[in-house]
Amino acid sequence: MTVAIVFTLIIALILFRAFVLHLRSTDLDNDKFVGLPREVKLAILKERVLETPSEKALCNLETFLKSEGIEVDMEVYRPMYAEQLRISREDNAIALDDELYAREAAWMDKIEPFEFAEALKLKKEGKKEEFVQTYLQGVLRYYSDEKIEGSLEALLPDYPDAQAMLDEYKALEELRDSSGADEASIEKLAKAKDSWAKKLCI
Q: How many CA atoms lie within 13 A of 18 on its CB side?
């Protein structure tokens, strides 16, 4: 897995990673999973499809989305899943996986995190602090640079401090793109991303 992929995954993992490791993708009826907030359930199921793709993971995500009244054409994703299995056996799998992951992340980001709808509700109720906090949690659920940058830019009229977060994220992109794939570089990048993400947890 390349540095770019590691960089993108850190966002989604940072808030619930420890818990996810105790859940299997088959456990939609697991008591621990059932008791989670819906936004966390969605984040876990999306991560499972990206990190440990399987037909079961895809079906679980589809089932959950339907239970929430959200229709998503999973058939669009299945060819990417099949391609991932195929290229894992190629000599240049790393380069191919990088490009494929970008497409997978873009598709996954079309499923908007529930935090944004909740944030809008809080904004209408005049609860600005809660609105900003919830909105930023939604930003952390995204995988792609485009969505992360776009959502922070959209927040600027209500929360000018988001500019600093946006600038720091762009700096992280530059660090990612110039980093090597060695363990030390990945660790440095992970620490920088962790520091950035924590600033969004206001």
A: 1
